[in-house]
Specification:
315 residues; TIM Barrel; 47% helix; Lipoprotein; two-stranded antiparallel sheet
Length: 315
């Protein structure tokens, strides 16, 4: 038997095994995902092996416009997501991806991701409320099929690094939430945050404003040697804010696959292992506000870096 034939047979066997495994684990969906399922905030599920996986496995997509409309790139992205149990995609580069030449491809991709690859949420990463009125509102409204729409907004504007003031940030966040609440079905609002600075000494004030004006918050753990201590302070402020508002607030942990952060770690360990370090620290610690936050999963920055350090292994 030739080496080429052996390789082909091996690839077919591995493909069947992967397909069956994904069906059993619930990450391949052969029928459209109902909109209420896409909006559900599910915490955990178990695989046949008994390993517990959190239901939020997110990924930032860089260079969205260069992927949409390129079937090879689209399929490569979706296959990678399936192999890594990704079920939430957050899209950068949407200004270019929503041009007339690309918008149709983007809408089709969102529906395909939801209905065939178990990706329940498709998130638009935005930096201003002007983007909503200029692009996203018309994009979503033009789609009678709600599966072709974005169902989450993510505000990424680093006030802590000097990109505007916190006061202005909250104004934008409030407008995003108001827009999302006015949509049918509702579009959730979340944000990525770094540090509670600018202004200093106002940590609880800032945490209260963020919790009040969003449905979920993403907090980064950008390290080489991952540790819960790195994120504990920020989680405590958010938890105390949630307690004051009578909420149990969902938190997503962001890891970076960039060189200088967790790239070397992810070449050896899985994303789930990194998340396990943080959840273990959470479970074994005691801090103000702990009972009012809920770690619901992790987000990876970003696709280009992640696929480089964790490629799909065929054999």
């Amino acid at each position: 038997m030739s080496k080429v034939l052996i390789r082909r047979i091996t690839l077919i066997i591995l493909t069947v095994i992967t397909f069956n495994s994904c069906q059993k684990d619930g990450f391949y969906i052969s029928k459209p995902v109902a909109e209420n399922e896409a909006q559900a905030d599910i915490s955990t599920s178990s695989s046949p092996s008994g390993t517990t996986y959190n239901h939020y496995h997110g990924l930032y997509i860089d260079s969205t416009s260069s992927i949409m409309g390129d079937t090879v790139k689209e399929n490569s992205l979706l296959r990678w997501c399936l192999s890594k149990r990704i079920n939430t995609l957050s899209f950068y580069d949407l200004t270019q991806a929503m041009t007339p030449a690309k918008a149709g491809h983007l809408a089709r991709f969102l529906k395909l991701a939801k209905t065939q690859y178990g990706i329940k949420e498709n998130t638009a990463v935005v930096g201003s409320d002007a983007f909503i009125s200029s692009y996203l509102d018309s994009f979503n409204r033009s789609k009678t099929d709600t599966l072709e729409r974005f169902n989450t907004l993510n505000l990424e504007k680093e006030w802590w690094n000097g990109d505007g003031t916190f006061k202005n940030y909250v104004k934008i966040l409030t407008k995003l939430k108001q827009w999302g609440r006015a949509q049918t079905p509702m579009v959730k609002t979340e944000e990525y945050i770094g540090w509670f600075v600018r202004p200093s000494g106002k940590e609880l004030y800032m945490a209260n404003e963020l919790v009040k004006n969003s449905d979920r918050i993403l907090v980064h753990v950008y390290q080489q040697a991952l540790s819960f201590q790195y994120v504990l302070g920020r989680l405590s402020y958010l938890g105390q804010a949630a307690k004051s508002q009578g909420k149990i607030f969902p938190i997503v942990i962001i890891f970076s696959a960039e060189p200088g952060f967790s790239a070397d770690y992810f070449r050896i360990y899985d994303f789930e292992d990194a998340y396990g370090i943080i959840t273990s620290g959470y479970l074994n610690s005691d801090f103000p506000g702990k009972e009012n936050i809920k770690l619901v999963g992790y987000q990876i920055f970003d696709y280009s870096y992640a696929k480089s350090v964790k490629p799909i292994m065929l054999w």
